[in-house]
Amino acid sequence: MSNEKNKMNVVQLTIITAINMMGSGIIMLPTNLAQVGTMSILSWLVTAVGSMSLAYAFAKCGMFSRNSAGMGGYAEYSFGKAGSFMANYTYGVSLIIANVAIAISAVGYASVLLGKELSPIEVGLFTIFTLWLATVLNFRGARVTGRISSFTVWGAIIPVLAICIFGWFWFSGKLYVSSWNPNHYPFFTAVGKSISITLWAFLGLESASANMDAVENPKRNVPIACLGGTIGTAIIYIVSTNVMAGIVPNAGLLHSNAPFGLAFATMFNPTIGKIVMGLMVISCFGSLLGWQFTIAEVFKTSALAGYFPKIFGKVSKTETPLLGMIVITILQSLLALMTISPSLSKQFNVLVNLAVVTNVIPYLLSMASVSVMQKSENAPVNKMRITNFIALVGSVYSLYALYTSGSQALMYGSIATFIGWTLYGFVSHRFDLKKSDNIEKLV
């Protein structure tokens, strides 16, 4: 009974899923999209279709899978223990990288809000402080994390909904049209440039499945959270960013470190803009909080499966993997020190692209396992065909996102993946030798 009290309900899980997408991605999204112009709405449509396909497939995975460990459990249906390991490993790597990027962005935008010029070393130290603060707040367990995240999400929801509803009074169709393709990119080049940006905004649609062990009635609640969080986020993203493009000139968005603050300053006054910036920083921290919890859950389930060291599987009285969280944050702190650079935005973009590449790998493994998963549960043939087709659409989109991420991100992502295969060699005897022994006994 005590364990159930420390588990999230469906509303909290849906909110965390939405926060994991909105809390960090929304802050700089208009600025990044301004690199392409309002033509990026076409990329939104492509990403919306791809993300909804992935979310639908993940919802079905949550219903059919008998395995725990989220995407690692899904991948096991088609690729065995090796695929399960790689899904958990690459997902864990992507979250570690992404959280450092989120923390760096939160510190950077907070410094703009406070009017403070931070040196690269100061940015690194404040980033480490932010990471540790998020970790400590997670020590009380899943329910406390859900409550805090339920509060901080309003830092993004309030300004974004205000833009969606009231921004139309300041919207200029002429300004929107003039910002269509300011750099005169070829059609497919422009769409491709925005794909990785929009996918970064949607990363987190799978976080409900990653938190299966920490939610009440996961068979029912995980699919609801996946679909509900993704649909809501897609609507908010598309409306808010396109309304802003008709309020603030493209050049202004392009050079802004706080685009939502700039939009509200344009609509009202600089003071309102500052308030919105503060709310966005709070929301970003809430996203970091949710992601830190998700990382710990991914590493815990991987440790319980025998993939990762046992230290990540040890939990406290509140079912919280404290030691694992500490080890993860130490790794993130080292990564934050490694990212110290005079060009914070450039380093942020490198981290984001690498996080996207490594995050897509478990997506592909999971989508490829949908068919086997359904057959193992004797799903109706007509429903299987529909789900398999949607999973294929999600796979094609994921491959396209890899292609548009750039050669550098693909290279480093490939190296990280090959390291994972090497690491699996050290634990594969726990699974492959047992399988071989069983086969010999049968023969």
Please report the number of helical segments. 20
Assembly status: single chain
Q: How many E strands?
A: 0
Which fold name fills CATH's third level, the topology? Amino acid/polyamine transporter I
Low-confidence stretches: none
CATH level 4 superfamily: Amino acid/polyamine transporter I
- Which class of secondary structure composition applies to the elements? mainly alpha
Q: What value does the Rg take, in angstroms?
A: 21 Å
Q: Quick one: overall form?
A: globular
Number of domains: 1
CATH class: Mainly Alpha
The mean pLDDT is 84
**Biggest β-sheet strands, sense, barrel:** none
SSE string: HHHHHHHHHHHHHHHHHHHH
User: Roughly what fraction of the amino acids lie in strands?
Assistant: under 5%
Question: How does this structure look, described?
Answer:
The mean pLDDT is 84. This protein is an all-alpha fold and 443 residues long. It has a single domain, classed as Amino acid/polyamine transporter I (Up-down Bundle). The radius of gyration is 21 Å and the shape is globular. The protein is 78% helix and 0% strand.
Q: What is this entry, summarized?
A:
This protein is mainly α and 443 residues long.
Provide tags for this entry.
Amino acid/polyamine transporter I, globular, 78% helix, single chain, 20 helices
Write the layout of secondary structure elements.
Layout: H1 2-5, H2 10-33, H3 41-64, H4 71-114, H5 120-137, H6 142-152, H7 154-166, H8 173-178, H9 187-202, H10 207-210, H11 218-245, H12 250-254, H13 259-267, H14 270-304, H15 322-338, H16 344-368, H17 370-376, H18 381-404, H19 407-424, H20 429-442
Helix pairs in contact: 2-6, 2-9, 2-11, 2-14, 3-9, 3-11, 3-17, 3-18, 4-5, 4-14, 4-15, 4-16, 4-19, 5-14, 5-15, 6-14, 7-11, 7-14, 9-18, 13-14, 14-15, 16-18, 16-19, 17-18
